[in-house]
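Why do we bother with a discrete structure alphabet at all? Because it lets us treat a fold like text: something you can write down, compare, and reason about line by line. To make this less abstract, here is a complete entry for Rho GTPase-activating protein 1. Read it the way you would read a sentence in a foreign language you are learning: slowly, and without expecting to understand everything at once.
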Amino acid sequence: MEPGHQPNLRPIRAFQVTHSGIMDSEDDDANLNLSLSDYHDYEPNLEFDDSELICTTSLAPLTPELLDLSQEFLLPSSSDGTIEDNFEKELGEGPPSYSEIATCSLDYDVFGDLHRSGVVEVVGDDELGRRIIVISACRLPLSKDVHPDLLLRFLMHTLDKYVEQDYSVIYFHYGLSSRNKPPFSWLWKAYKAFDRKYKKNLKTLYLVHPTNVIRIVWQMLRPAISVKFGRKMMYVNYLHELQQYLDLDKVHIPPQVIECDKILLSKNPRAAEIAKEMNSASKPSLGEAEGPCSLKCPTKQFGVSIQFIKKNNTEMIDSIPPIVRQCIEFLSQPDALETEGLFRRSPSAAIVKEIQRDCNNGGVISFRNDPHIAAVLLKTFLRDLEEPLLTFDLYDEISKFQAWEIPKKPRKVKILVLEKLPVDNYKILKYIMQFLWKVQDRSCLNKMTSSNLAVVFGPNLLWPPNGHVSLQSIAPINAFTDFLITHHESIFII
């Protein structure tokens, strides 16, 4: 492998991916006829039989009969290829039935079968604290068993909990077949049903193991889809390419997808060699730069236990780790406290990593007068603890919080917090909840209510030993966190 070579990761639109960002290609249309990967020029049979699709060298449009598209979709687009500031207005209103879907509210139990299928999973946060949502085509139920409208409602019902903050979506394409695929027209209807609320904070949509059908569908939808949205979509041909951007240990990849990746690599020796080198290389985790603090040096605060910090850090006052105190003191300033979207926005990854390195090496840290940096570092500290602040022992009890009888909730919460939490954990939790109450008290300015803060902090305060928080457990964990914030004065002993 040539020095400096990077595995190919091509966005759906023709972009050049660099370490500093994504740049438009000078010749956008010229890239449409390129292979999905420089590693191979074949199209593996990973999905439904696409033999009925006509794929020429120029990827000519297909007939409406083959694609099951409505006449509404076939109307010419008024887009001139520029970036529209309000592309949803340009697209117009969605079909009436899907407008109802976008505003409907359904009981959680309606989607019981879809929840159990694991077709959609929330697997924690990426290195910048953005929630990661995984959609697996191989787990889609049979089309004859689930109506496409119900599937769309389920997707919207799940995303509604996370779209108010930055998030990313991973779509594993392997396993889509003629038996479980929604009709092509559903893609267009779904795009219109997911209004600006869903698209605005979506940072990246990773399409893993794409096939030629995706290219054809994208070409057909492209005239009507916003350029802004198109820039968020990226092809990922192999799992090791995704590893450059996400910690795959936190992503519960279906076994079928892993086997598919192995088959693809076996057919491409060059890609297999790159994957082997990437897997064998020692990759430092976030905040663990190569250098003197790659192991547990005494000044390290990220990725260790509370006990380790207390034992080795002389600056720890009243059991509060220095980084937690520094973040909260900075964020408690009026200008920072009143920042709109606090804890929802993601600053530069390079800056966050640099500050974490300085912190772990015992250096002086600077938030660069940016509240979002301090906010991400606070969330990252909690997420990187070896054991969650609320401990593994309390996971089962807290995950049943919504089933508790309402009159008994205050007493049961006090028992958990005051009697079952270790003393150091209790002090840190109290310190953070007191601060979060101040944040929600300024919600008229920062737009962060207690429920919004609970969605952000809940999964960072508690997760099971296997690291995978199920969709059913997220709601009670967030509700428990909301309860702590709202009733902190009566729960925590002053």
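What the structure line is telling us, in plain words: Residues 423-441 form the longest helix (19 residues). Confidence is low (pLDDT under 50) at residues 8-108, 282-292.
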